[in-house]
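Field reference: "sequence" (input) and "structure" (output). Example, Xanthine dehydrogenase accessory factor:
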Amino acid sequence: MRDVVAQMHRWWGEGEPFARATVVATWHSSPLPPGTSMLVGPDGAAIGSVSGGCVEGAVYELAQEVTDSGRPVLERYGVSDDDAFAVGLTCGGIIDVYVERVDPEGFPELGEVATAVAAGEPVAEVICVAVDGPDPEGRLGRRLVVRPEGTSGSLGSARLDAAIAEDARGLLAGGRTETLRYGYDGTRMDEELTLFVSVHATPPRMLVFGAVDFAAAMARIGAYLGYHVTVCDARPVFATARRFPEAHEVVTDWPHRYLRTEAEAGRIDERTVVCVLTHDPKFDVPLLDVALRLPMAYVGAMGSRRTHDDRLRRLRATGLGEEALARLASPIGLDLGARTPEETAISIAAEIIADRGGGSGTRLTSLSGSIHRPRSMRPAAGD
Protein backbone atom coordinates (compact mmCIF):
# COMPACT_ATOMS: atom_id res chain seq x y z
CA MET A 1 0.00 0.00 0.00
CA ARG A 2 2.79 2.43 0.86
CA ASP A 3 4.44 1.83 -2.53
CA VAL A 4 1.14 2.44 -4.34
CA VAL A 5 0.62 5.76 -2.53
CA ALA A 6 4.19 6.80 -3.32
CA GLN A 7 3.67 6.08 -7.01
CA MET A 8 0.38 7.98 -6.97
CA HIS A 9 2.18 10.96 -5.48
CA ARG A 10 4.84 10.89 -8.21
CA TRP A 11 2.28 10.87 -11.02
CA TRP A 12 0.14 13.43 -9.20
CA GLY A 13 3.12 15.73 -8.92
CA GLU A 14 3.66 15.52 -12.69
CA GLY A 15 0.14 16.85 -13.23
CA GLU A 16 -1.05 14.10 -15.59
CA PRO A 17 -4.34 12.30 -14.78
CA PHE A 18 -4.26 8.60 -14.02
CA ALA A 19 -6.67 5.98 -12.65
CA ARG A 20 -6.88 4.14 -9.37
CA ALA A 21 -8.97 1.00 -8.99
CA THR A 22 -9.64 -0.01 -5.37
CA VAL A 23 -11.31 -3.08 -3.91
CA VAL A 24 -14.00 -1.67 -1.61
CA ALA A 25 -15.98 -4.82 -0.72
CA THR A 26 -15.53 -8.59 -0.99
CA TRP A 27 -17.66 -11.70 -0.60
CA HIS A 28 -16.90 -15.42 -0.45
CA SER A 29 -13.49 -16.53 -1.69
CA SER A 30 -12.18 -13.16 -2.81
CA PRO A 31 -8.42 -13.22 -3.36
CA LEU A 32 -7.45 -9.78 -1.98
CA PRO A 33 -8.88 -7.66 0.87
CA PRO A 34 -10.62 -4.28 0.72
CA GLY A 35 -8.17 -1.43 0.31
CA THR A 36 -6.05 -3.22 -2.29
CA SER A 37 -5.43 -0.98 -5.31
CA MET A 38 -4.23 -1.04 -8.89
CA LEU A 39 -3.00 2.05 -10.68
CA VAL A 40 -3.08 2.71 -14.41
CA GLY A 41 -0.63 5.49 -15.19
CA PRO A 42 -0.54 8.25 -17.81
CA ASP A 43 1.74 6.08 -19.93
CA GLY A 44 -0.53 3.03 -19.59
CA ALA A 45 1.66 1.30 -16.99
CA ALA A 46 -0.23 -0.89 -14.51
CA ILE A 47 0.95 -1.13 -10.91
CA GLY A 48 -0.61 -3.25 -8.18
CA SER A 49 -3.51 -5.68 -8.33
CA VAL A 50 -7.16 -6.01 -7.32
CA SER A 51 -7.62 -9.76 -7.73
CA GLY A 52 -4.24 -11.44 -8.08
CA GLY A 53 -4.64 -11.53 -11.86
CA CYS A 54 -8.23 -12.71 -12.38
CA VAL A 55 -9.90 -9.50 -13.58
CA GLU A 56 -6.98 -7.13 -14.08
CA GLY A 57 -7.54 -6.98 -17.84
CA ALA A 58 -11.14 -5.84 -17.49
CA VAL A 59 -10.25 -3.38 -14.73
CA TYR A 60 -7.39 -1.99 -16.84
CA GLU A 61 -9.76 -1.21 -19.72
CA LEU A 62 -12.30 0.37 -17.36
CA ALA A 63 -9.55 2.45 -15.74
CA GLN A 64 -8.56 3.91 -19.11
CA GLU A 65 -12.20 4.81 -19.81
CA VAL A 66 -12.54 6.50 -16.41
CA THR A 67 -9.32 8.45 -16.96
CA ASP A 68 -10.74 9.80 -20.21
CA SER A 69 -14.25 10.54 -18.94
CA GLY A 70 -13.44 11.65 -15.41
CA ARG A 71 -16.56 9.85 -14.13
CA PRO A 72 -15.95 7.31 -11.31
CA VAL A 73 -17.43 3.82 -11.62
CA LEU A 74 -18.25 1.15 -9.03
CA GLU A 75 -18.07 -2.23 -10.78
CA ARG A 76 -18.79 -5.71 -9.44
CA TYR A 77 -16.77 -8.72 -10.56
CA GLY A 78 -17.54 -12.37 -9.83
CA VAL A 79 -18.65 -15.66 -11.31
CA SER A 80 -21.89 -16.37 -13.15
CA ASP A 81 -23.99 -19.52 -13.00
CA ASP A 82 -23.82 -20.07 -16.75
CA ASP A 83 -20.11 -19.65 -17.25
CA ALA A 84 -17.77 -19.60 -14.26
CA PHE A 85 -15.14 -17.80 -16.32
CA ALA A 86 -17.40 -15.15 -17.86
CA VAL A 87 -16.79 -12.41 -15.33
CA GLY A 88 -13.31 -13.33 -14.29
CA LEU A 89 -13.10 -14.50 -10.66
CA THR A 90 -12.58 -18.22 -11.08
CA CYS A 91 -12.08 -18.62 -7.32
CA GLY A 92 -15.80 -18.12 -6.76
CA GLY A 93 -15.51 -14.79 -5.00
CA ILE A 94 -17.16 -11.45 -5.65
CA ILE A 95 -15.48 -8.05 -5.41
CA ASP A 96 -16.64 -4.47 -5.78
CA VAL A 97 -14.01 -2.27 -7.42
CA TYR A 98 -14.21 1.51 -7.36
CA VAL A 99 -12.38 3.12 -10.29
CA GLU A 100 -11.62 6.84 -10.24
CA ARG A 101 -9.52 9.39 -12.04
CA VAL A 102 -6.82 11.02 -9.94
CA ASP A 103 -5.29 14.41 -10.68
CA PRO A 104 -4.26 17.48 -8.65
CA GLU A 105 -7.57 19.25 -9.28
CA GLY A 106 -9.80 16.37 -8.23
CA PHE A 107 -7.63 15.14 -5.36
CA PRO A 108 -5.75 18.13 -3.93
CA GLU A 109 -5.32 16.32 -0.58
CA LEU A 110 -3.15 13.54 -2.05
CA GLY A 111 0.05 15.34 -1.10
CA GLU A 112 -1.11 15.38 2.54
CA VAL A 113 -1.97 11.67 2.42
CA ALA A 114 1.35 10.71 0.79
CA THR A 115 3.35 12.73 3.32
CA ALA A 116 1.57 11.05 6.24
CA VAL A 117 2.00 7.57 4.79
CA ALA A 118 5.70 8.15 4.10
CA ALA A 119 6.19 9.36 7.68
CA GLY A 120 4.34 6.39 9.14
CA GLU A 121 1.58 8.60 10.50
CA PRO A 122 -2.02 7.29 10.56
CA VAL A 123 -4.38 8.80 8.01
CA ALA A 124 -7.73 7.73 6.54
CA GLU A 125 -9.15 8.54 3.13
CA VAL A 126 -12.96 8.53 2.99
CA ILE A 127 -14.51 8.32 -0.50
CA CYS A 128 -18.16 8.35 -1.51
CA VAL A 129 -18.22 5.35 -3.84
CA ALA A 130 -22.00 5.03 -4.39
CA VAL A 131 -25.18 7.09 -4.06
CA ASP A 132 -28.57 5.40 -3.69
CA GLY A 133 -30.65 7.19 -6.31
CA PRO A 134 -30.09 10.49 -8.13
CA ASP A 135 -27.06 12.55 -7.17
CA PRO A 136 -28.05 16.19 -7.74
CA GLU A 137 -25.48 17.43 -5.21
CA GLY A 138 -22.60 15.58 -6.84
CA ARG A 139 -21.70 13.50 -3.78
CA LEU A 140 -20.23 10.60 -5.80
CA GLY A 141 -16.45 10.75 -5.78
CA ARG A 142 -16.18 13.35 -3.01
CA ARG A 143 -13.59 12.61 -0.36
CA LEU A 144 -12.55 13.55 3.15
CA VAL A 145 -9.06 12.99 4.57
CA VAL A 146 -9.11 12.21 8.29
CA ARG A 147 -6.17 12.29 10.69
CA PRO A 148 -6.13 11.84 14.48
CA GLU A 149 -6.36 15.62 14.67
CA GLY A 150 -8.02 17.50 11.85
CA THR A 151 -9.59 16.82 8.46
CA SER A 152 -9.34 18.18 4.93
CA GLY A 153 -11.71 18.02 2.00
CA SER A 154 -15.45 17.45 2.35
CA LEU A 155 -18.15 14.94 1.50
CA GLY A 156 -20.61 17.77 0.91
CA SER A 157 -22.07 18.32 4.36
CA ALA A 158 -20.54 19.58 7.60
CA ARG A 159 -22.68 17.17 9.65
CA LEU A 160 -21.70 14.25 7.44
CA ASP A 161 -18.03 15.22 7.67
CA ALA A 162 -18.23 15.34 11.47
CA ALA A 163 -20.00 11.99 11.74
CA ILE A 164 -17.66 10.10 9.42
CA ALA A 165 -14.57 11.74 10.95
CA GLU A 166 -15.54 10.34 14.35
CA ASP A 167 -16.04 6.83 12.96
CA ALA A 168 -12.93 7.01 10.77
CA ARG A 169 -10.78 7.82 13.80
CA GLY A 170 -12.11 4.70 15.48
CA LEU A 171 -11.06 2.69 12.42
CA LEU A 172 -7.67 4.42 12.43
CA ALA A 173 -7.08 3.34 16.02
CA GLY A 174 -7.70 -0.28 15.08
CA GLY A 175 -6.01 -0.15 11.67
CA ARG A 176 -9.21 -1.29 9.95
CA THR A 177 -10.48 -0.44 6.46
CA GLU A 178 -14.28 -0.65 6.08
CA THR A 179 -17.28 0.41 4.01
CA LEU A 180 -19.91 2.43 5.91
CA ARG A 181 -23.33 3.80 4.98
CA TYR A 182 -24.85 7.14 5.99
CA GLY A 183 -27.65 9.51 5.15
CA TYR A 184 -26.90 12.69 3.20
CA ASP A 185 -26.52 14.71 6.41
CA GLY A 186 -24.60 12.10 8.41
CA THR A 187 -27.47 10.13 9.94
CA ARG A 188 -26.26 6.61 10.66
CA MET A 189 -29.73 5.07 10.34
CA ASP A 190 -30.02 6.05 6.66
CA GLU A 191 -28.12 4.47 3.78
CA GLU A 192 -28.21 6.87 0.85
CA LEU A 193 -24.41 7.16 0.69
CA THR A 194 -21.83 4.36 0.61
CA LEU A 195 -18.54 5.60 2.01
CA PHE A 196 -15.31 3.65 1.75
CA VAL A 197 -12.86 4.35 4.58
CA SER A 198 -9.36 3.43 3.44
CA VAL A 199 -7.05 3.41 6.46
CA HIS A 200 -3.32 3.96 6.15
CA ALA A 201 -2.19 3.10 9.65
CA THR A 202 1.19 2.71 11.25
CA PRO A 203 2.53 -0.85 10.90
CA PRO A 204 1.47 -3.27 13.63
CA ARG A 205 4.14 -4.09 16.18
CA MET A 206 5.92 -7.37 16.82
CA LEU A 207 7.75 -7.48 20.15
CA VAL A 208 10.32 -10.27 20.37
CA PHE A 209 11.69 -10.88 23.85
CA GLY A 210 14.93 -12.81 24.25
CA ALA A 211 18.06 -12.00 22.24
CA VAL A 212 18.64 -15.52 20.92
CA ASP A 213 19.14 -17.06 17.47
CA PHE A 214 15.41 -17.77 17.22
CA ALA A 215 14.78 -14.04 17.78
CA ALA A 216 17.00 -13.12 14.81
CA ALA A 217 14.96 -15.39 12.53
CA MET A 218 11.71 -14.09 14.03
CA ALA A 219 12.78 -10.48 13.43
CA ARG A 220 13.53 -11.32 9.81
CA ILE A 221 10.15 -12.90 9.07
CA GLY A 222 8.26 -10.33 11.16
CA ALA A 223 9.72 -7.49 9.12
CA TYR A 224 8.90 -9.39 5.93
CA LEU A 225 5.26 -9.65 7.04
CA GLY A 226 5.08 -5.88 7.57
CA TYR A 227 5.47 -5.66 11.33
CA HIS A 228 7.56 -3.04 13.08
CA VAL A 229 9.87 -5.40 14.95
CA THR A 230 11.43 -4.70 18.34
CA VAL A 231 13.86 -7.14 19.99
CA CYS A 232 14.19 -6.67 23.75
CA ASP A 233 16.51 -8.31 26.27
CA ALA A 234 17.91 -7.26 29.64
CA ARG A 235 21.44 -8.42 28.74
CA PRO A 236 23.36 -5.68 26.88
CA VAL A 237 26.01 -8.07 25.59
CA PHE A 238 23.35 -9.91 23.56
CA ALA A 239 20.86 -7.13 22.77
CA THR A 240 22.80 -5.40 20.00
CA ALA A 241 21.77 -4.05 16.61
CA ARG A 242 24.62 -5.97 15.02
CA ARG A 243 23.09 -9.29 16.09
CA PHE A 244 19.61 -8.28 14.85
CA PRO A 245 20.12 -6.21 11.69
CA GLU A 246 16.58 -6.78 10.42
CA ALA A 247 14.86 -5.60 13.59
CA HIS A 248 13.67 -2.02 13.47
CA GLU A 249 14.93 -1.45 17.00
CA VAL A 250 16.85 -3.36 19.66
CA VAL A 251 16.18 -2.44 23.28
CA THR A 252 18.16 -3.28 26.40
CA ASP A 253 15.71 -3.43 29.29
CA TRP A 254 13.91 -5.88 31.51
CA PRO A 255 11.15 -7.26 29.25
CA HIS A 256 8.23 -6.74 31.64
CA ARG A 257 9.34 -3.19 32.42
CA TYR A 258 9.71 -2.33 28.74
CA LEU A 259 6.29 -3.75 27.83
CA ARG A 260 4.58 -1.94 30.69
CA THR A 261 6.23 1.34 29.70
CA GLU A 262 5.16 0.92 26.05
CA ALA A 263 1.58 0.13 27.10
CA GLU A 264 1.40 3.16 29.40
CA ALA A 265 2.69 5.33 26.53
CA GLY A 266 -0.13 4.11 24.27
CA ARG A 267 2.18 2.27 21.87
CA ILE A 268 0.49 -1.13 22.30
CA ASP A 269 -2.82 -1.94 20.58
CA GLU A 270 -4.96 -4.88 19.56
CA ARG A 271 -2.75 -5.50 16.50
CA THR A 272 0.42 -6.02 18.57
CA VAL A 273 1.96 -9.49 18.73
CA VAL A 274 4.37 -10.68 21.41
CA CYS A 275 6.81 -13.58 21.04
CA VAL A 276 8.51 -14.62 24.28
CA LEU A 277 11.68 -16.60 23.53
CA THR A 278 13.51 -16.10 26.84
CA HIS A 279 13.32 -19.66 28.33
CA ASP A 280 13.88 -18.20 31.79
CA PRO A 281 11.14 -17.84 34.44
CA LYS A 282 12.70 -14.72 35.93
CA PHE A 283 12.19 -13.02 32.56
CA ASP A 284 9.14 -14.64 31.01
CA VAL A 285 6.79 -14.93 34.00
CA PRO A 286 6.79 -11.20 34.90
CA LEU A 287 6.60 -10.39 31.19
CA LEU A 288 3.65 -12.69 30.51
CA ASP A 289 1.89 -11.40 33.61
CA VAL A 290 1.93 -7.96 31.97
CA ALA A 291 1.25 -9.15 28.40
CA LEU A 292 -1.78 -11.30 29.19
CA ARG A 293 -3.49 -8.36 30.87
CA LEU A 294 -3.24 -6.23 27.72
CA PRO A 295 -5.59 -6.31 24.67
CA MET A 296 -3.12 -7.63 22.08
CA ALA A 297 -3.56 -9.82 19.01
CA TYR A 298 -1.23 -12.62 20.01
CA VAL A 299 0.95 -13.69 22.93
CA GLY A 300 3.16 -16.74 22.46
CA ALA A 301 5.93 -18.25 24.57
CA MET A 302 8.61 -20.76 23.67
CA GLY A 303 9.38 -23.80 25.79
CA SER A 304 8.75 -27.50 26.32
CA ARG A 305 5.48 -28.85 27.67
CA ARG A 306 7.12 -29.22 31.08
CA THR A 307 8.19 -25.56 30.89
CA HIS A 308 4.65 -24.64 29.86
CA ASP A 309 3.09 -26.44 32.84
CA ASP A 310 5.53 -24.80 35.25
CA ARG A 311 4.88 -21.42 33.60
CA LEU A 312 1.12 -21.77 34.04
CA ARG A 313 1.58 -22.63 37.70
CA ARG A 314 3.71 -19.54 38.25
CA LEU A 315 1.30 -17.30 36.31
CA ARG A 316 -1.68 -18.52 38.32
CA ALA A 317 0.25 -17.51 41.42
CA THR A 318 0.40 -13.94 40.09
CA GLY A 319 -3.40 -13.81 40.05
CA LEU A 320 -4.04 -14.39 36.33
CA GLY A 321 -7.33 -16.15 35.67
CA GLU A 322 -8.04 -19.00 33.27
CA GLU A 323 -9.54 -16.72 30.62
CA ALA A 324 -6.31 -14.74 30.42
CA LEU A 325 -4.18 -17.89 30.45
CA ALA A 326 -6.23 -19.34 27.58
CA ARG A 327 -4.89 -16.53 25.37
CA LEU A 328 -1.32 -17.80 25.76
CA ALA A 329 0.03 -19.71 22.75
CA SER A 330 2.43 -22.08 24.47
CA PRO A 331 4.33 -24.01 23.32
CA ILE A 332 4.59 -21.37 20.61
CA GLY A 333 4.00 -22.08 16.90
CA LEU A 334 2.25 -24.66 14.72
CA ASP A 335 3.27 -28.29 14.37
CA LEU A 336 5.40 -28.08 11.21
CA GLY A 337 8.19 -30.33 12.37
CA ALA A 338 10.42 -27.26 12.64
CA ARG A 339 13.99 -27.64 13.94
CA THR A 340 16.11 -24.67 12.87
CA PRO A 341 15.56 -21.09 14.03
CA GLU A 342 14.30 -20.21 10.53
CA GLU A 343 11.84 -23.10 10.44
CA THR A 344 10.67 -22.28 13.96
CA ALA A 345 10.11 -18.65 12.98
CA ILE A 346 7.95 -19.83 10.09
CA SER A 347 5.89 -22.00 12.43
CA ILE A 348 5.36 -19.04 14.78
CA ALA A 349 4.47 -16.71 11.91
CA ALA A 350 2.04 -19.32 10.59
CA GLU A 351 0.31 -19.46 13.97
CA ILE A 352 0.05 -15.66 14.10
CA ILE A 353 -1.45 -15.57 10.60
CA ALA A 354 -3.87 -18.40 11.37
CA ASP A 355 -4.91 -16.74 14.62
CA ARG A 356 -5.48 -13.40 12.89
CA GLY A 357 -7.36 -14.84 9.92
CA GLY A 358 -9.34 -17.54 11.70
CA GLY A 359 -7.49 -20.39 10.01
CA SER A 360 -7.12 -23.88 11.43
CA GLY A 361 -3.56 -24.60 10.31
CA THR A 362 -4.87 -27.74 8.58
CA ARG A 363 -3.84 -28.74 5.05
CA LEU A 364 -6.21 -27.14 2.53
CA THR A 365 -6.46 -30.46 0.68
CA SER A 366 -8.32 -31.92 3.69
CA LEU A 367 -10.82 -29.05 3.90
CA SER A 368 -13.82 -27.97 1.86
CA GLY A 369 -15.47 -24.61 1.31
CA SER A 370 -13.95 -21.19 0.83
CA ILE A 371 -10.17 -20.84 0.98
CA HIS A 372 -10.23 -17.11 1.78
CA ARG A 373 -11.94 -16.09 5.02
CA PRO A 374 -13.12 -12.61 5.91
CA ARG A 375 -10.51 -10.96 8.09
CA SER A 376 -10.11 -7.80 10.06
CA MET A 377 -8.20 -5.24 8.04
CA ARG A 378 -4.71 -4.98 9.55
CA PRO A 379 -1.88 -3.49 7.51
CA ALA A 380 -0.03 -6.13 5.50
CA ALA A 381 3.51 -5.93 4.38
CA GLY A 382 4.40 -2.47 3.17
CA ASP A 383 1.51 -0.65 4.80
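Confidence is low (pLDDT under 50) at residues 80-86, 375-383.
The longest strand covers residues 18-27.
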